């Protein structure tokens, strides 16, 4: 896996966890976005983010099974926003205002994907 793809997955994890959800939900959302992640690898990242204070985990008992939900903490939301800003800046620098097409297996029609001038205003501030 390439470094940029690993970084993108990590940013997506924080973004997905803005709404509380289980590891399975995070994994399903990553797959939907075209990433292939092993559950054991995802768990390592989730545990790392908990250790760094970017995610919070809550365990609840459902019958005899424990279910763990994850949610982005305030520090995680700040980190996610900073990473999104950096990725937006990189995308603008590499591709200009026109985004490259997504691979067909992602299943999202992005034929009209572009960044508007308003999207780029914050990028030039730094």
Describe this structure in a few short sentences.
The chain has one domain: Arc Repressor Mutant, subunit A (Orthogonal Bundle). The chain contains five helices and three strands; from the N terminus they run H-E-H-H-E-E-H-H.
Account of the protein in words:
The structure is a single chain. The chain has helices at residues 3-16, 23-32, 39-51, 74-95, 117-121, and strands at 21-22, 55-62, 65-72. It is of the alpha+beta class and 126 residues long. A hairpin with a 2-residue loop joins β2 and β3. The protein has one domain: Winged helix-like DNA-binding domain superfamily/Winged helix DNA-binding domain (Arc Repressor Mutant, subunit A, Orthogonal Bundle), CATH 1.10.10. The radius of gyration is 16 Å and the shape is globular.
Structural features:
126 residues, alpha+beta, Arc Repressor Mutant, subunit A, 3-stranded antiparallel beta sheet, 3 strands, globular, disordered C terminus
User: What integer value in Å does the Rg equal?
Assistant: 16 Å
The chain-level mean pLDDT equals 81
Q: Outline the low-pLDDT stretches.
A: 112-126
SSE string: HEHHEEHH
CATH architecture: Orthogonal Bundle
Strand content: 5-15%
In total, how many domains does the architecture comprise? 1
Question: What is the number of helices?
Answer: 5
By secondary-structure content and strand pairing, the structural class works out as alpha+beta
Strand order of the largest sheet: 1-3-2
The N- to C-terminal Cα distance equals 30 Å
Let me know the largest β-sheet.
3 strands, antiparallel
Number of strands: 3
Shape: globular
CATH fold label = Arc Repressor Mutant, subunit A
Considering DSSP H and I runs of 4 or more, what fraction of the residues is helical?
A: 40-55%
Q: For this structure, what is the CATH homologous superfamily?
A: Winged helix-like DNA-binding domain superfamily/Winged helix DNA-binding domain
**CATH level-1 class:** Mainly Alpha
InterPro entries: WH-like_DNA-bd_sf (IPR036388)
Protein name: PadR family transcriptional regulator
Organism: Gordonia amicalis
């Amino acid at each position: 896996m390439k470094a940029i793809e690993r970084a993108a997955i990590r940013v997506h994890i924080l973004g997905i966890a803005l709404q509380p959800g289980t590891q399975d939900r995070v994994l399903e959302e990553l797959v939907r976005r075209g990433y292939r992640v092993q559950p054991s690898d995802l768990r390592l990242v989730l545990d790392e983010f908990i250790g760094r204070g970017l995610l919070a985990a809550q365990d609840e008992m459902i019958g005899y099974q424990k279910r763990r939900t994850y949610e982005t903490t305030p520090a995680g939301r700040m980190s996610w926003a900073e990473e999104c800003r950096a990725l937006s800046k990189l995308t603008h620098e590499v591709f200009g205002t026109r985004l490259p097409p997504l691979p067909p297996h992602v299943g999202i029609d992005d034929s009209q994907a572009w960044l508007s001038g308003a999207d780029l205003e914050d990028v030039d501030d730094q």
